[in-house]
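Moderator note: this is an archived Q&A kept for reference. The question asked for a predicted structure of one protein chain; the sequence and the answer are reproduced below.
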Amino acid sequence: MYTVYKGRDNTFTVQLLEDEEIKQLTGVSSVSIIYKGTEYSSDVYGGSFDFSSNPSLGYITFKLGNIPALPEGRDSRTELIVYDPSNTNGVYWGYMSLKVTTLS
């Protein structure tokens, strides 16, 4: 489970693998998650998704605490979707487990 702290700059990174091989992200145009039924996209929250720093290694770094609309709670079935010019409807990469909380 990844923990997101609202209003904080904490990050976590995932690496996309396909058949145990690194998935190159050089052609990726956007990334989104579907958390608790709502889609949050790099098109809207560009600073919260970094898929261009290490595209040849398949890394996506998430900085989701900067998304004000992200509600507190848990979702063990947060979907990860990756878009590129040849996959304009997005490619589903599976579930992530997220916990969103506010530090007091």
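Archived answer notes: DSSP finds no helices and ten strands in the chain.
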